[in-house]
Design a protein that fits this description.
322 residues; alpha/beta; N-(1-d-carboxylethyl)-l-norvaline Dehydrogenase, domain 2; 2 domains; eight-stranded mixed β-sheet; 13 helices; 8 strands; globular; binds nicotinamide-adenine-dinucleotide
Length: 322
C-alpha cells in the first residue's frame, strides 16, 4: 500500500490509471506492479533529473552516489528547480513540498535494499556499471529490477555483470530528464517479457513517453545525435563560425529549442567523450570518433555547465528549466 501522502494528488491518480491500463494490456495481476520505491544510482547530470521525475510522480525515491558533494549539489539544484516550478505555476507549493519530502540522498548503498527498481546513471563505463550492479545484486532482493540509463553501451553486456540479467532493462532518459518526456526502452537479449512490461508501465506511471528500441549502440537518439554533434564540434575546430552563430543558424533553420553546442555544454564534455567513444567502439562510424578539441577542453576543465565553462561561460550551477 502506498503511504497516504502518495495516495493523494495527481501523480498517484495518474499512476493508478496507467497501472489499470497495464493490467488490461498484459492480463497480469496487481502483484506484478509492485513498484513503489525507486532507487537512482548516480546523482550527476542525469541522476538528479531522473530523481526529480520519480519524486514529482509521487514515488519514494532514494538517490545513491559515492560522492557526498554530488548529492549535495543535486539537492541544492533540485530545491531551486522546484522553487522555480512553483514560481512559474507548473506545480503548487504542496506538490513541490511533497516531491521534496519523498526524495532522499545517501552514500550508503545498503539503503537501496528497499527499492523495487534501481535506475543506474553512473559513468558511461562498462566496468563501473558492472561493479555497481554486482554490489546491488548483493544488496537488493531478487525481485528488484535494474534499469540502465546508458546512452551507448549494450544493455545485454551491462546485464551480464548484474547476476540477474532477466531483470535488467534499458531506460534511456533524455537530457534534461526533468523536462524531456522521451524514454528509450530497450530489452537486452535475456530481459524477460515481464521485466520489460513492468518497466514500461512504470515509465508511463512516471508520466514519461516510452519508445521501444533494439539493444543497439546509441538506440535511436544518440545514433544520429552523437555524429551530428561531433560534426558541429569540427565546425568550431575549423573556425567556421562562432559557437553562438552556429547554434543560432541550426535553431533558426531546424526549429530546435537548443543549439547543439548549448546542448553539449549541458551534456558535459566529459560525458560526451565517454558516449562518443562507446558509440565509435560499437559501430566504427568515423563521424562518431570524438574530435581532438573535446579532449583539449576536458584537459582545460571546460566541461560545460557543470564546470562553469564549455563552449559558453556560465555563472552558478542552476539546473535547466522549471
Ligand atoms: N549527460 C547526458 O546528456 C546523458 C543523457 C542520457 C543518458 N546519459 C547517461 O547517463 C549516465 C550518467 O551520465 P551523467 O551525464 O549523469 O554523468 P555525470 O558524470 O554527470 O554523473 C555521474 C555520477 O555517478 C556517480 N558515480 C560514479 N560511479 C558511481 C558508483 N559506482 N556508484 C554510485 N555513484 C557513482 C558520480 O559520482 C557522478 O555523480 C551515463 O551512462 C550516460 O551515458 C547521459
Amino acid at each position: 500500500m502506498l503511504p497516504s501522502a502518495l495516495r493523494e494528488g495527481s501523480g498517484a491518480r495518474e499512476r493508478n490509471r496507467v497501472t489499470s491500463e497495464f493490467f488490461a494490456l498484459f492480463g497480469t495481476t496487481e502483484h506484478s506492479f509492485m513498484i513503489q520505491t525507486i532507487g537512482v544510482a548516480g546523482s550527476g547530470t542525469m541522476g538528479a533529473g531522473i530523481a526529480i521525475v520519480a519524486a514529482r510522480a509521487g514515488f519514494r525515491t532514494i538517490v545513491y552516489d559515492t560522492a557526498q558533494a554530488a548529492l549535495e549539489r543535486a539537492r541544492n539544484q533540485t530545491e531551486a528547480f522546484f522553487a522555480r516550478s512553483v514560481e512559474r505555476k507548473r506545480l503548487t507549493r504542496e506538490q513541490a513540498d511533497r516531491a521534496l519530502a519523498v526524495l532522499q540522498g545517501t552514500t550508503d548503498i545498503d539503503a537501496l535494499a528497499q527499492c523495487d527498481i534501481v535506475i543506474e546513471a553512473v559513468f558511461e563505463d562498462l566496468k563501473v556499471k558492472h561493479a555497481l550492479l554486482g554490489k546491488l545484486d548483493r544488496v537488493c532482493p531478487p525481485s528488484t529490477l535494474f534499469a540502465s540509463n546508458t546512452s551507448t553501451l549494450s544493455i545485454t553486456e551491462i546485464a551480464a555483470g548484474s547476476g540477474r540479467d532477466e531483470r535488467v532493462v534499458g531506460m534511456h532518459f533524455c537530457l534534461p530528464a526533468q523536462l524531456m518526456r522521451l524514454v528509450e526502452m530497450s530489452p537486452g537479449l535475456r530481459t524477460s517479457e515481464e521485466t520489460f512490461a513492468t518497466a514500461w508501465a512504470f515509465c508511463q506511471a512516471l508520466g514519461q513517453v516510452p519508445v521501444k528500441t533494439k539493444d543497439n549502440p546509441g538506440f535511436i537518439l544518440n545514433y544520429f545525435l552523437i555524429p551530428f554533434n561531433n560534426d558541429v564540434i569540427r565546425m568550431v575546430e575549423a573556425g567556421l563560425a562562432e559557437p553562438a552563430d552556429i547554434d543560432l543558424a541550426i535553431k533558426t533553420a531546424l526549429g530546435y529549442a537548443m543549439g547543439p553546442l548549448e546542448l553539449l555544454d549541458l551534456v558535459g564534455l566529459d560525458t560526451h567523450l565517454l558516449v562518443a567513444e562507446a558509440l565509435y567502439a560499437g559501430t566504427h562510424e568515423p563521424r562518431a570518433a570524438v574530435p581532438a578539441l573535446v579532449r583539449r577542453m576536458i584537459a582545460a576543465g571546460h566541461l560545460g555547465r557543470k564546470s562553469g565553462q564549455g563552449f559558453y561561460k556560465y555563472s552558478g550551477s542552476a539546473m535547466f528549466g522549471a
